Amino acid sequence: MFVDEISVEVYGGKGGDGVAVYRREKYVEYGGPWGGNGGNGGSVIFVGDEGKSTLIDLRYMRHIKAKPGERGRTKGQHGASADDTFVKVPLGTIIFTEDKSLKIGEITKQGEKVVVAQGGKGGRGNIALATHKNPAPDYAENGDPGVYRRIVVELKVLADVGLIGYPSVGKSTILSVVSNAKPKIAAYPFTTLHPNLGMVEVGESSFVLADLPGLIENAHLGLGLGIQFLRHIERCRIFIHVVDLTRDDPYDDYVKINHELEMYDEDLLKRPQIVVANKIDMPGNEEKLKKLEENIKMPLITISAHQRKEIDTLLYLALETLQNAPKVEEKTPDYVKNYTLESEEPNFILTKQEDGSFDLTGNKLKLIFERTDFTKDEAVKRFARQLRSMGIDEALRKEGAKNHDTVRIFTYEFEFIE
Ligand SMILES: Nc1nc2c(ncn2[C@@H]2O[C@H](COP(=O)(O)OP(=O)(O)OP(=O)(O)O)[C@@H](O)[C@H]2O)c(=O)[nH]1
Ligand SMILES: [Mg+2]
User: Fold this and answer.
1) Which of 53, 164, 221, 401 is the most exposed, having the fewest neighbouring CB atoms within 10 Å of its CB?
2) For residue 339, is pLDDT > 70?
3) Domain residue extents for the chain
4) Would you say the CB of residue 278 lies under 6 angstroms from ligand 1?
5) pLDDT tens track for 53-94
6) Are 410 and 385 in contact (CB under 8 A)?
7) How far is the CA of 217 from the centre of ligand 2 (A)?
8) Quick one: 161-324 is in which CATH superfamily?
């Protein structure tokens, strides 16, 4: 099955915790701090791979977790950072945030990488935390949590040439005779439910051909398989427009399909088309053929996919047309902003509750919170200092906080002390 949009959960690895230990050796009188830093957690990284053409792999790994960093060790040794977790994805993959309002990245080249979930930084051990004032801290930092997010991964078919036309005109049959692809072929409409891709070799050259689900009138309004497949057409540089000589009026079909393209995006009509009249092996097609020849201004080739008649003529013409066709401009919807790491978020968000207590949240505050080992007095004091330097005390005062008011920070409650 062709997968073109999939939602997955990605987890950066947690950073390893730093440790708080002291040096105790035979001849060392005053053992100093000797706890190493935790290692960084691994990141989940998507990497472009030309060998892939679908997102099917992602379907089998809905949750992608990178490994955590190692805890710091004694003797000042740092914990090892975890290896990143790489996931190979096809070129043309676009990664969005869950609601698709932000684009996290796009992969267009072999080996190109996009970090989709950053691993957490390792926490500092008590060596790194030692200061002039406190040369031997008895606490260490916890490792940062890795980024967790749900992402939407999208792949538009990266085909150069697209087969378009009504259902049952023989699009899949054509793909099956010119490539190794094995699309489903049957005498009923909408046999093809998802685009199939095939690599077509023509002499020394090759191109990717997409067999697209059949279109019908008002596809642009969602009829038949509808708009979702018109999207796949966007990247094709040229079209092979297939008409069926056994249908009542192939010329009328041709006009209607082009109208659908135009209604979806009028630029699509500017792309070169080769019109292919298929099923010439069937009797009674002279009149219909004549009407096509008289009215169609584009190159027209008459073939029989069944009997493999004139298939080579078609392929050489497709290749030549493709080589002269302009590159397709990517259209990114206006609403999609590029995701940036510098968030415009404030350091913290303070809200006064109805019962007179205060609530503090925010991603930056969260980071400091997660790093703190609340079982250690010293660490808690340090946390309080960090809050002060972020301006939280002042903000609380401004909001009217008085002695002994309750301040909630994530899972902990504190007392405000003047
Ligand atoms: N006589 C004859 N029949 C053909 C020819 N090419 C395809 N067919 C038949 O037409 C029917 C439809 O063919 P498909 O290739 O599945 O058509 P399609 O355009 O992919 O159809 P959808 O996937 O439904 O859009 C099948 O029964 C084919 O065997 C041909 O050259 N001659
Ligand atoms: Mg088909």
Assistant:
1) 221
2) no
3) 1-155, 161-324, 349-415
4) yes
5) 678 778 788 899 999 999 999 999 999 999 999 999 988 899
6) no
7) 17
8) P-loop containing nucleotide triphosphate hydrolases (3.40.50.300)
